[in-house]
Design brief:
about 350 residues; mainly alpha; MetI-like fold; 2 domains; globular
């Protein structure tokens, strides 16, 4: 995991610095729009302060740490020694360019507090609905109801999430039925409400985003569950159980379901990065201040440190998800064991 994460950081750092756009120009436009000095002078000073005028390798070593390569950095590197340490290796993710007082680590914690509960709830809904739906589709295959469920699943899987979000806003928002709020996760007067009223207000705001976050995963997981049940139904141990005289209910409960749940161990590991990364489309459409929207805003404003922070956070959870999948497989499948 460590060398993989290091490789991701190198690749991401190179891509965002080689992509079109200039963070210094964005910062200068914002400053001159507020009447704070000459643009060329601001650009030159900004590039010097953030080492954007140095070689790309030096910029990466400055970001990686543990030494600060800036003029105020470590004395070994020609700095004045006032700020010798910097970078990932000392837990410093940097600061935002347009808001120098805001640390990327602090902003990530705020955004994760929004994205993790929302995405976690959507994933829980997805699995609670997809598992019985997949089991029913496999056990009742060939029936009209199973065919209708398959058609519905494929329709959901192919439905673009941004289009679905806009349709839900038009249908249930103020321009339609007016039943639900369509922006944010709380009302403007939520702080004045009681605990129960505040919880209901949050639930009403989160309902449409949860629908958009969960329906695609619901379709995918249900199809995986259906395929797992069908594979188990055709296995030799199921035929042996039936030959022993076990009822169909006992065969399904004791033999089919435990073995068909094995592929879900992989899916459980894959959902971890979704809980952290959020959804750029859903959070943008519904104006939710989560990780996905933060990544979008950082890309738009050329906030290099913020982009690196969101990518590395998602990458770390992706690698952790792979590790969790491997461990779960070793726990639930007796055929998988670690060998010396």
């Amino acid at each position: 995991m460590i060398p993989t994460l290091f490789g991701i950081s190198v690749l991401c750092f190179a891509l965002i610095h080689l992509a079109p756009g200039d963070a210094a120009l964005v910062r200068a436009d914002a400053a001159t729009g507020e009447g704070r000095g000459d643009a060329s002078e601001l650009i030159e000073r900004f590039r010097r302060e953030h080492l954007l005028d140095r070689a790309l390798a030096v910029q990466y070593l400055h970001y990686l740490g543990p030494f600060d390569w800036s003029p105020s950095g470590h004395r070994w590197l020609g700095g004045d020694g006032s700020h010798p340490w910097n970078g990932l290796l000392v837990g410093d993710l940097g600061r935002e360019y347009l808001r120098p007082s805001v640390t990327v680590a602090g902003e990530l914690r705020k955004r994760l507090a929004v994205t993790v509960p929302l995405s976690g709830t959507a994933i829980l809904i997805c699995f609670l609905l997809a598992i019985p739906l997949g089991i029913h589709g496999a056990l009742r295959r060939g029936t009209p109801l199973a065919h209708a469920g398959t058609a519905l699943v494929f329709a959901l899987y192919s439905l673009p999430v941004f289009w679905a979000g806009l349709l839900l806003q038009m249908a249930f928002g103020a321009t339609g039925l007016g039943w639900l709020p369509v922006l944010g996760l709380s009302s403007s007067d939520a702080a004045e409400l009681g605990p129960l009223a505040r919880a209901l207000d949050t639930l009403r705001h989160a309902l449409l985003p949860l629908v958009c976050l969960s329906y695609g995963g619901l379709a995918y997981v249900s199809r995986q569950m259906r395929a797992g049940v069908l594979d188990a139904l055709g296995a030799d141990f199921v035929r042996a159980a039936r030959a022993k005289g076990l009822s169909e209910r006992q065969v399904v409960r004791r033999h089919v379901l435990p073995n068909s749940l094995l592929p879900l161990a992989t899916l459980v590991g894959q959902v971890l990065p979704l809980m952290v990364g959020g959804s750029i489309l859903v959070e943008t459409v519904f104006d939710i201040p989560g990780m996905g929207r933060y990544a979008y805003e950082a890309l738009s404003n050329r906030e290099y440190d913020a982009v690196m922070g969101t990518v590395l956070c998602s990458a770390l959870m992706t690698l952790a998800g792979f590790l969790v999948s491997d461990v779960l497989y070793a726990l639930v499948d007796p055929r998988v064991r670690l060998e010396a």
